[in-house]
Amino acid sequence: MKIGRNDPCWCGSGKKYKSCHAAFDDKIDSYKAKRIPVPSHKLIKTPEQLEGIRKAGKLNTEVLDMIAENIKAGMSTEDINVMAHNYIVEHGGIPACLGYQGFPKSICTSVNDAICHGIPSADEILKDGDIINVDVTTILDGYYADASRMFMIGEVSDEAKKLVEVTKESVDLALQEVKPWGRLGNIGAVISEHVHKHGYTVLKDIGGHGVGNDFHEDPYVCHVAKRDTGMLLVPGMVFTIEPMVNEGEEDFFVDEENDWTVYTEDGMLSAQWEYTIAVTEDGYEILTH
User: Fold this and answer.
1) Over the stretch 89-119, which tens digit does the pLDDT of each residue have?
2) How far apart are alpha carbons 197 and 185 in whole angstroms?
3) What sign does the CA torsion over 144, 145, 146, 151 have?
4) What is the pLDDT of residues 122-168, one digit of tens each?
5) CA–centroid distance for 82 within its chain
6) Phi and psi of 102, rounded to 5°?
7) Residue 22: CB partners within 8 Å, gap ≥ 6?
8) Which of 68, 173, 182, 245 has the smallest CB count inside 10 Å?
9) Closest Cα partner for 80 from 96, 95, 66, 101?
């Protein structure tokens, strides 16, 4: 049902629609008329929701900072899991991964040729030369924030270091494409352009996602795309940018024993960085990284 101009705004501000989001919706409708995919109101976070996600993001970033200070060779991936779990719980949060669709641990730890969803284990010991992605999602007061970082253990090879650096560069370039009234496809375009320029591949079938009120929301953020395609970006949208970049081919398989961990088919290295970002009136805000 169409909202009357003098009705309360759909965003919950308590203001009349005409003085709150009416002009905003008119602008979205002008893009919709051009057959450009536009977000539903459900995907546009209110100021209250953004503040909740921001607080969850602050805690999530603190967890990754703590891991960065402590991760080292000789440590098991389960050691990292316990550190992260305890920090989150002690600061009033909930580890979103624990129990999610049966996932058995509080974070994901993906080492070397593991692309994503690595399950921490006391038997998996980090050694000099390893690269590892640690993926943390934190719930605080009902709001979700999601980020991951790469860590290089000891002295890594030049090849591994370059892969990690290029993957991070691709995310930083993608941030510059997050603009209100821009297009989602520009994010995937700049990532794939940068990755392919360096001879790597990036996964199309696993990508970023909306987040904040739930763990996984729309839109799907593909990291391989054409410029000026995809959903319209509008202020209030919150999603992750998290390219998974392979040293070799894009092909992957899922571990048959745990039905979670994704590995490169050719056994070559993979790297990933993940930020949760919000689209703002003049660009973007990093909520956790």
Assistant:
1) 999 999 999 999 999 999 999 999 999 999 9
2) 18
3) negative
4) 999 999 999 999 999 999 999 999 999 999 999 999 999 999 999 99
5) 22
6) 90, 5
7) 5
8) 68
9) 66
**Integer CA distances (angstroms), 62 to 58, 87, 88, 289, in order:** 6, 9, 9, 10
State the chain's maximal CA–CA distance in angstroms: 65
Half-sphere exposure of 219 (CA within 13 A, CB side): 24
The whole-angstrom separation of Cα 98 and Cα 107 is: 7
Strand-strand pairing, 201-202 and 244-246: antiparallel
In angstroms, rounded to a whole number, what is the distance separating the alpha carbons of residues 103 and 68?
23
CA distance to 67, 193, 217, 277, per residue, from 224 (Å): 30, 8, 19, 19
Residue 25: pLDDT band (50, 70, 90) is very high
Residues 6+ apart with CB under 8 A from 82: none
How far is Cα 45 from Cα 212, in angstroms, rounded to an integer? 8
Q: Is 179 exposed, middle or buried (0-12, 13-18, 19+ CB in 10 A)?
A: middle
Amino acid (one-letter) located at 111: V
Tens of pLDDT, residue by residue over 176-221, are 999 999 999 999 999 999 999 999 999 999 999 999 999 999 999 9
- The candidate with the shortest Cα–Cα distance to 239, out of 285, 204, 193, 194, is 285
CA 77/CA 58 separation, integer angstroms: 23
Q: Which two tokens stand for residue 134?
A: 């640690």
Extract the tokens encoding 104: 């058995």
Number of H helices, E strands in the chain: 5, 15
Q: Is the pLDDT at 2 greater than 90, yes or no?
A: no
Sheet with 270-272, strands from edge to edge, namely: 201-202, 244-246, 270-272
Residue 1: pLDDT band by 50, 70, 90 thresholds? Answer: low
Identify which of 172, 156, 121, 188 has the alpha carbon closest to the alpha carbon of residue 269. Answer: 156
The answer for 71, left when phi > 0, alpha when psi is -120 to 50, beta otherwise, is beta
